[in-house]
Amino acid sequence: MTTPSHLVGNADTTFWLFNPTTGYDLTHPATPSSPPVATRLRLATTADVAVTIAPAKTAPIVIDMQNFFLSEAIARAAGIQIVHVVWGITEEGLAAVPGGRLLMRDQWNTALHKPLQDSFDLSQSTALPDRSF
């Protein structure tokens, strides 16, 4: 017997599907009841709940260089483009962020973590290079 999936989000616009047996389905078919998206990749997570994605519609975004939450190797093997979001505070933004000088843009503290930077640099000569914003 197949366990039914549950809708997460708004069925008319943006939704995921969750199934207690197979985990989260982030492939976003046309409607919640549409057949599954053809090219799918199931990823294990540290939370013991799998996540299924559609590589053609997916771009992992690395925010704050938190390696714990993302394995670039899995994404690269699936042909998924990596997007790195590296941020820093401008002089104008200092007033709003206590201790913000530690996170000034274009400084060592806000640079991409070295292993991720090395990976980013290597990707630049591939067909699907990483992007950084």
TrEMBL record:
Name the source's superkingdom: Eukaryota
In Swiss-Prot or TrEMBL terms, this protein is called Isochorismatase-like domain-containing protein
Classification from the root reads:
Eukaryota, Fungi, Dikarya, Ascomycota, Pezizomycotina
